[in-house]
Amino acid sequence: xxxxxxxxxxxxxxxxxxxxxxxxxxxxxxxxxxxxxxxxxxxxxxxxxxxxxxxxxxxxxxxxxxxxxxxxxxxxxxxxxxxxxxxxxxxxxxxxxxxxxxxxxxxxxxxxxxxxxxxxxxxxxxxxxxxxxxxxxxxxxxxxxxxxxxxxxxxxxxxxxxxxxxxxxxxxxxxxxxxxxxxxxxxxxxxxxxxxxxxxxxxxxxxxxxxxxxxxxxxxxxxxxxxxxxxxxxxxxxxxxxxxxxxxxxxxxxxxxxxxxxxxxxxxxxxxxxxxxxxxxxxxxxxxxxxxxxxxxxxxxxxxxxxxxxxxxxxxxxxxxxxxxxxxxxxxxxxxxxxxxxxxxxxxxxxxxxxxxxxxxxxxxxxxxxxxxxxxxxxxxxxxxxxxxxxxxxxxxxxxxxxxxxxxxxxxxxxxxxxxxxxxxxxxxxxxxxxxxxxxxxxxxxxxxxxxxxxxxxxxxxxxxxxxxxxxxxxxxxxxxxx
Length: 483
Description:
The protein is an alpha+beta fold. The protein has helices at residues 3-23, 31-45, 50-83, 181-196, 206-216, 224-233, 243-259, 268-281, 286-300, 310-324, 332-351, 357-361, 363-380, 385-411, 416-443, 455-477, and strands spanning 89-94, 100-103, 108-117, 120-129, 140-147, 160-163, 169-174, 382-383, 448-449. The strands form 2 sheets. Strands 1, 2, 3, 4, 5, 6 and 7 form a 7-stranded mixed sheet that branches. A two-stranded antiparallel sheet has the order 8-9. A hairpin with a 2-residue loop joins strand 3 and strand 4. The longest helix has 34 residues, at 50-83.
């Protein structure tokens, strides 16, 4: 058993322990049966060798962490609910670059962004009167608002924080220039890059806005119609900076270092700070942070004279994230992120020897769709066959556009003419992606509503996928006879 597989098994034990702990409150009506099963499993564990006790220990750690998380979250929700009775809850937020804005009506403009209120992660819904000061990325705002009810139910349910209505208020307490240290630096660099990404463009418009969303995560200026077009075509993920964007940037600079002849063992000292600076630059969203963590663990292996293994890096990232935040196990975004990353890692192992161009250009998109489909079907009751077809074309073009935009920003420090060349090429690529999204969205076949998948259906799907990958692996590993 390889080191990567061992790490994968340990992650499975950790996830199983957390999952059972999260399910325990639902098992209260049958607690006698659960107690008997627990006693029987404990007695069975004493008959196992010490190797299995390592798994039992990891399983127990996951269960304890999840149970503590439930207990702490319950206390915070109770406290917040009490404060919510007749009095608005006060909270301070740093406005992320991923803030979205909408014209709610003629009087208010709505701003939506993630935040945290007394330990509870919320989605802030901030309403500002038209013509009043609007929140901008990097600013700090003091808000008084109301905690909404769980939209998904349960202790770990999704909550919103409404800054609207009687007793609510919002005011900026620190501008981007006043935010100290790293946040101020990040805001200045983001503004500078944003200006440089538009250098040399003759016709600035919605495509320039999309370019900035692709590279810098500036999505607040994307209009509602464009958002709806990308959502309907299943390509909205391209403009929410995530693991895809981080890995493209990481691979780009890794190739640059390789071309310069920089020693591979020490490239981690340059790539890791560079990638984390980019993660902070685009707002440090959860998916981007996970991708940055995985890339850092992958590169750091060479520093200690160890072979870099993507599966080990994935497993270590999974373990770190779920030890620090066990609630991520039941987060749809986290599930999709780790499932897709695992699929790409496994495919990379299988297809490393394939010479077919399809395997290197289009197969990753198919793999990402295959590994994400059960989670989407079980959560949103849809499947996206049309989205797969569109993404087969849109993803490679979007990746090309990201690279061109990065080159445009870099060359802007040397020549405005060269910056204009690369920015114009990126503009053209993004225009193609926009056209594909609008065409697919107009046809209306990208998303098909279905009955919500059960756990059994999801398991069967992944078992079939595993069998297909195993067959491909066997076929790829077979000895070839030369005549």
